[in-house]
Amino acid sequence: MKKAVVLLSGGLDSATALAMALDEGYEVHAVSFNYGQRHSVELDCAVEQAAAAKQHKIVEIDLSSFGGSALTADIDVPKHDDVAELTDEIPVTYVPARNTVFLSYALAWAEVLEADDLFIGVNALDYSGYPDCRPEFIAAYETMANLATVAGVQGRKLTIHTPLIDLTKAEIIQRGLALGVDYAKTTSCYDPAPDGRACGRCDSCLLRKKGFADAGITDPRPYVKD
């Protein structure tokens, strides 16, 4: 059976990417990161989602020591009343180099496992404009990975799969439901309440809510205003 390392945050997108990898017949090894994020409740969701994986590792990285993001520093998470208020500017919730760091850890594990495939749930349509979610970034990273690994030098090509990259949030949700994803076990909120309920007003919550609305499906995750 082919092996794949899947980056699993505990959110909607990565849960769908995990389901897609399993559906394609991969033996899945999931990796999550406790990087000092204020919304660490997502890791509880990741543990539940990873039950279908062969292995699940939670890697400790302290990106909060660098700060620079509302997710890892004492900076307010921006809130809005409507998704139409979101702009094209890269928001302060962007974590500097996060996907570069995460993919590097996933790549290291893939080498040990002799896995030639990585899955990451990045999306370039209904997203917050993060530079490390773009197809150009993934293509450049894949090129680097094949230059930097023993497998690549020996002619075994490593592939980074981005099955959600061109899908709308509604399409992602529909694809996931068809594969049996339980979205009640996912969270997207950047600033959840102490009891885990989503704030409903951060960028990620608004994009998630719009996706469920566009898909004509009720979001099973509880929100503070519910």
Quick structural summary:
With 226 residues, the protein is α/β, with parallel strands linked by helices. It has a single domain, classed as HUPs (Rossmann fold, 3-Layer(aba) Sandwich), CATH 3.40.50.620.
Describe this structure in words.
- This protein has 226 residues and is α/β, with parallel strands linked by helices.
- The chain has a single domain, classed as HUPs (Rossmann fold, 3-Layer(aba) Sandwich).
- The chain is 35% helix and 11% strand.
- Strands 3-2-1-4-5 form a five-stranded parallel β-sheet, sandwiched between helices.
- α6 crosses α7.
- It starts with a strand and ends in an 11-residue tail after the last helix.
- The model has no long low-confidence stretch (mean pLDDT 95).
Secondary-structure topology with pairs:
Blueprint: E1 3-7, H1 12-23, E2 27-34, H2 41-49, E3 55-60, H3 98-113, E4 117-119, H4 135-148, H5 150-153, E5 159-161, H6 169-178, H7 203-215
Parallel strand pairs: 1-2, 1-4, 2-3, 4-5
